[in-house]
Amino acid sequence: MTPIDKPLRVTLFFARAGSSSPRMQRPKLEVILSPTELAALPGRNLADTVCVVFDILRATTSMITALASGAECIIPVAEIPAALALRKTHPDALLAGERNGLRIRADLTGDIDFDLGNSPREFVPSKVQGRTIIMSTTNGTRAIRACAGARTVLISSFLNLRATTNWLRDANPAHLILICSGTVDEPAFEDILAAGAVCERIWPQYVGGHVSDSAEVARRLYPLMQSNLVEAMKNCRNGRRLLAMPEVRDDVWFCVQRETVSFAACVGPDGAVRKLG
């Protein structure tokens, strides 16, 4: 088991907005734009940090959809062998995930097909209600695992954007990092747009503190594209790739629906993603 697949332990905290205790230092807002930046996270002290992970096309959208459809929880793992090993201890769990955009099949596992891919349209109540889902994707689940040292790790998408930002306003974290999972080793336009949407909504809480240039870039980009996110997806690498694949092209429209889900989601102490509240 690699270090990134060790149990992911995070602790929730709720700070009352306006409280003086979390404001002993200037508030800090960062946006990680590229997956290549994730390697440095385990070496940083994130004990008082909130991370929010976005993989709009499609891992975090699929996780939020699964929870909205009644799934008990999602356990994110970085690699296929880790998912298979975990299935042995959770024999009733569903396996979900993708490589190169398509469901993981026996040619990659050695003997079995995964139950589900990474299309949010697959995670319907008839398949996932009451179930634990073990998920491994190319970028999203790895990004989540990289945040293992954070005090709180939220999972977000356009679907639950309002719920995520409401939680952040209430918790008022002194240090917030928005994580764009990216595409392979490159930044992903769609993740940056989602991070920018959050930046725009919480900006008054951080503008007087330490704000990274990457957060400024994301915040300024989102208003330029927010009126037509489907069109924006046609201009990004991942969007074009999915639109060219008949079996998953409808995922693109699904993933840019805004605020259809009313809950925030968080990685719990056991490493599983569940609804908050």
Strand line-up of the largest beta sheet? 9-1-8-2-7-10-11
Strand content: 15-25%
Q: Structural class of the helix and strand makeup?
A: alpha/beta
Let me know the number of strands. Answer: 11
Query: How does the major sheet shape up?
Result: 7 strands, mixed
Low-confidence spans: 1-7, 9-23
Q: Averaging pLDDT over every residue, what do you get?
A: 91
Shape: globular
Which radius of gyration do the C-alpha atoms yield?
A: 18 Å
Instruction: Note the run of SSEs as H and E.
Output: EEHEHEEHHEHEHEHEHHHHEE
Percent helix: 25-40%
Number of helices: 11
Separation of the first and last Cα atoms: 32 Å
Q: Can you put this structure into words, describing what you see?
A:
There is one protein chain. With 277 residues, the chain is an alpha/beta fold. It is globular and about 55 Å long. It starts with 27 loop residues before the first strand and ends with a strand. A hairpin with a 2-residue loop joins strand 4 (94-99) and strand 5. A seven-stranded mixed sheet has the order 9-1-8-2-7-10-11. It has a four-stranded mixed sheet with strand order 3-6-4-5, with helices on both faces. The protein has helices spanning 59-68, 80-89, 106-109, 125-128, 140-146, 161-171, 189-206, 213-225, 229-233, 237-243, 250-255; strands spanning 28-32, 49-54, 73-76, 94-99, 102-103, 132-136, 152-156, 175-180, 210-211, 265-267, 273-275.
